[in-house]
Design a protein that fits this description.
- By secondary structure, this protein is α/β, with parallel strands linked by helices.
- It has a single domain, classed as Rossmann fold.
- Helices cover 32% and strands 22% of the residues.
- Strands 3, 4, 5, 8, 9, 10, 11, 12, 13 and 14 form a ten-stranded mixed β-sheet that branches. A two-stranded antiparallel sheet has the order 1-2.
- The chain is globular, with a radius of gyration of 20 Å.
- The chain starts with 6 loop residues before the first strand and ends with a strand.
């Protein structure tokens, strides 16, 4: 175990205080909520913070953004970075954030050294995972298909493209936005397909955990919630992270993102729709707590400074 604990600041005092200093390196973290609340804003803000000097709460290290929802086109990235550059002039003129579009589970799996094959049967969907090493990949390229590629060993992680990228670029944080979309896109939500979804999620989360441990970096994921859109509570973001016990087992640091309550919005006229409640949903040894913060439309997440946003409180 390391003598010192390194954490990455979120750029928001209330969130950092709730996480006892910020996002922990070497352990996966996750934020979940309904669409259009600002999960991507928070993820990009963490990437910017990673590239800042440690005296500002950063790591002075590059960031890698794995975009599974094809959000960050070139112009969108430039616009977001311009916002944060105006807020933090010390950010590098040349962005130290690498965005990689990963549009489906097959490309995401390959990035982590896993080959997926999805089989659509009459009533359900099943899947096969393979973990080819460098030698097996070379044999396949040469036309030798006799060697099985389903044997799983630690080599598949060390040989994975992401592991090699981390070794080369020394990323301070890897963002996966989102972990949910690529799985949902190939595995329908019918109950008989849950085993296939669970298997994919277990493999990906287990691999993420190992990679961030080995490379002393933060891994930050966005996730959907499990509640049905038909439920009245869904619009308020009520529900647990999508993935159930698999997420709970592998991800010990979880944040929930919610709209502000009516009374809170009324306290800040003109800004009410930009207020967000951030919940420490899960953190080792700590109970749930909530803080109120402000998501500015051109600067990202910021402190309210005083009042209800000033300190963490037990969740009600």
């Amino acid at each position: 175990m390391k003598d010192t604990v390194t954490k990455l600041s979120s750029g928001v005092k209330e969130i950092d205080d709730m996480l006892e200093g910020g996002i922990l390196l070497g352990a996966p973290a996750l934020v979940y909520g309904i669409p259009n609340l600002g999960k991507t804003w928070l993820s990009f803000q963490l990437c910017c913070m990673s590239t800042r000097d440690p005296k500002h709460g950063g790591l002075g290290r590059r960031a890698l953004y794995l975009d599974t929802e094809t959000f960050f086109t070139r112009d969108t990235f430039d616009r977001f970075y311009k916002y944060f550059k105006a807020r933090w002039p010390d950010l590098p003129e040349e962005p130290m954030i690498d965005v990689k579009i990963v549009p489906d589970i097959f490309k995401l799996g390959k990035l982590f050294g896993i080959d997926y094959e999805i089989i659509h049967e009459e009533k359900r969907v099943s899947m096969i995972s393979r973990f080819p090493t460098k030698r097996q990949k070379a044999l396949k390229r040469s036309g030798n298909t006799k060697l099985k590629t389903t044997t799983k060993s630690s080599d598949y992680i060390l040989d994975s493209k992401l592991y090699q990228m981390l070794q080369e670029k020394k990323y301070g944080i890897v963002v996966i936005d989102s972990i949910t979309a690529p799985i949902k896109s190939v595995i329908p939500s019918a109950a008989q397909n849950f085993p296939a979804r669970a298997s994919i999620l277990q493999e990906l989360l287990g691999t993420f955990y190992t990679i961030c441990q080995e490379n002393d970096c933060a891994i930050f994921m966005t996730d959907h919630i499990t509640r049905s859109p038909m439920s009245p509570g869904y619009v308020y973001g009520l529900g647990a992270p999508w993935g159930g016990q698999d997420v709970t087992y592998y991800v010990k640091i979880q944040l929930g993102l919610y709209r502000a309550l009516k009374a809170q919005r009324e306290m800040y006229p003109g800004e009410g729709q930009r207020l967000r409640r951030v919940e420490r949903h899960r953190y080792p040894g700590l109970e749930k707590s909530l803080v109120l913060v402000h998501l500015a439309k051109d600067t990202g997440y910021k402190s309210l400074g005083s009042g209800t946003g000033g300190k963490a409180r037990p969740a009600s």
